[in-house]
Amino acid sequence: MAIHPSNFGAPVEDALIAEINKKYANRVLHDVGLCICVFDITQAGEGKVRYGDGFLWYKVVFRLVVFRPFTSEVIIAKVKSSDEDGIRLTLGFFDDIFIPVTYLPQPSAFDPNERAHFWIPDSPLTTATELLDTPLTERMYIDQGEVVRVRVEADEFCDDEPGPIKVSEGVVQQVKREGRRPNYMICCSIAEQGLGPVAWWSGASQAEDGDAEGEEMDEG
C-alpha cells in the first residue's frame, strides 16, 4: 500500500486506513461481498521508498467490514421498484436485492396499473387473470417505499467479461452486452408467515395483544 508524499505528515495508521478505504470501500470483492470500510490494521511493515515515484510503500495486513448476509438470515429493506418478474429492494447503501415471483406469498399477482404486486390471503384463486378481477379491498399490496422483512435465499457473484470486439468501417468498436448483471446480487423470499411488509404483521400482533387483554379482563 502506497502513501503519497503529501500525507507523510499524518500518522501512518491513519494514512494507511485512508488509502485502503479509497481502494476498497463501496466495492464488491468476488466471493467476499460488498466492502464497507477498514475494521483495523493487524500488521504493517516498515515504509520503503521505491526509485522513481517518491511514495512510501507498506506491506499491510488488515481486516474489512464486509456486507454479505448469510443464507436464511432475515433482514429489513425497502421496496425500490416492482415489475412482472418480481420486486427489487434497497438498503440505502445496496440496491441489488431481488424477490422473484416464485418467492412471493401465494396467491399473488402483479397489478400493472399500480405497478405493484398484491397478495390475497386464503384465496382459492390461482391465475393472475382471476386475481386481477378481485375487488381492490381484498388485495394486500406491496407498494414502493414500503418496509419489508425478507429472508435471504441465495446470493450470486457475477464477473461479466467485456463484449467482443468488432470492426465497422475501419473503426474498432466495443460491443456492449445488454442487460449487464450486477457484480453481486441477493435473492430473497417473503413466502412465509412473518415475512413481507412489516405493517401486515404489526397490525396482526396488535390485534392479538388486544384479544389477550380482553380475555384477561373477562376472567377478572
From TrEMBL:
Compartments where found: Nucleus
Key word Transcription present: yes
Entry's Gene Ontology cellular component terms: RNA polymerase III complex
Keywords: DNA-directed RNA polymerase, Nucleus, Transcription
Domain RNA polymerase Rpb7-like N-terminal per the UniProt entry, residue ranges: 3-54
GO biological process: transcription initiation at RNA polymerase III promoter
SUPFAM superfamilies: N-terminal, heterodimerisation domain of RBP7 (RpoE), Nucleic acid-binding proteins
Record's keyword annotation contains Iron-sulfur: no
Gene3D superfamilies reported for this sequence: Nucleic acid-binding proteins, RNA polymerase Rpb7-like, N-terminal domain
Protein origin, superkingdom: Eukaryota
Family note: Belongs to the eukaryotic RPB7/RPC8 RNA polymerase subunit family.
PANTHER family: DNA-DIRECTED RNA POLYMERASE II, III, DNA-DIRECTED RNA POLYMERASE III SUBUNIT RPC8
Full protein name: RNA polymerase III subunit Rpc25 domain-containing protein
Organism annotation: Gymnopilus dilepis
Lineage of producing organism: Eukaryota, Fungi, Dikarya, Basidiomycota, Agaricomycotina
